[in-house]
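User: ok so my PI wants both of these folded by tonight, can you help

Assistant: No problem, let's get them done. Here's the first:
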Amino acid sequence: MNWQAFAVKMASMARDLLAQESVTATLDKVTASAVELVEGCDAAGVLILRKKQVQTLSPTEPLVEESDRLQEKLGEGPCFDAACTGHPVFRIADVEKEQVRWRAYAPRAHALGIGSMMGFLLYTEDEDNLGALNLYSRSPGAFTDASETAGWLLASHAAVAFSSAREHADMQRAVATRHIIGEAIGILMARRRLTEDEAFDVLRRYSQENNVKLHEVARQLCEHGTL
């Protein structure tokens, strides 16, 4: 591993991650960078775990999704366990010979064409929404200690960028929600000659009585002209 060249590429990748305009674009950049920067990596993806339900994000190959579905079905695997337990990294040097930690998953993963793999904890700020960066090789023994270090550094950068991208997306949604609620209040004020507080109270009561979120009530009013 040429660590000097790796550091230069990581610095460039870190700048690119923060420049992405969406969560999806950020994760696409992360998984593509994993294949490019980590020695032995043939495919990569992000596994999101929500109450034992798995979602695959930004897979570079269908193999990644197949592995995630298998880990969800069996409730085990290095990527699943990294997200589930909060352990920073799991690694299988040779999937075919793995007989201790993931005895149900390993032979099925080998049948998929996986030779070796690593799973890195991606973020942990939300206990109900955990994730792992997962790296795959078709060859056994493809990942060295240097590969693991490189993967962990990449995952650390990815966690920061992912958190920033999610925060930005949340802010955009909040601004959009405030805007559409304000527009709905304006419609009610004009049509029913209400004050701003009275118009908001109409939206709030309708939301509670019909068990519909306030921003959805506002959206319906703006689109259809009626509650």
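One down. Here's the second:
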Amino acid sequence: MRTTTVGELRILLPDLDPEDLDSASDLTDDLSDAIVEDASWRGAELKDVRIRSSRITGADLSESTWEAGTLSGCEVTRTDFSGATLSGVTIERCAVTGSRFTGARLTDIRVKDVLFEGCRFDYATLSRVAAAGAVAFVDCVLTDATWSACRLPDTVLRSCQLARLELDSCHLHGADLRGNSLHDLKASLGNLHGTTLDEDQLSDITHLAVTELNLTVRRR
């Protein structure tokens, strides 16, 4: 295993050796120690599928449905989950890079030691996504997405695009939001309780407060 640090968060990630992996193209109920490149699983219906210690690159899982199962110890790169529906899936010790979740629906997902880097979550809906360990979003697009009843304490977001990201009844206590513009968030201030910000974001928080409280600000 290898580790990476984002802000003050240390994330445990897989350290896969391609020589230890076998080439695969079929998505079985238990895919382990595999290397998958450019596989097309568009519209697949998956249930209780377990993918472990594998490297997936350039796969197409758009419009697929994945119910229950696990994604553990994997590297997922340039993979398309656009329009996919994931429910009850556990994602643990994974690095997800340059992948697309545009319009995807993630419900009752458990995440632990997961790094999302350079991924697109625009128009995605995350419902009851819960972090059981370190999670970070780096250089991700989260515009027009919705997070509802998510429990993501101590999560780190860095250099992400958050325009019109809607937060509804989320628990983000201890999350590090430094380095992102919060100006166009669609969220009540309670969703940001206990988060860490930098001084440059105070004007964004003031804007959110004025909007939420319907204040009228006038010059003397």
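The longest strand covers residues 90-97. The chain is about 5% helix and 35% strand. Good luck tonight!
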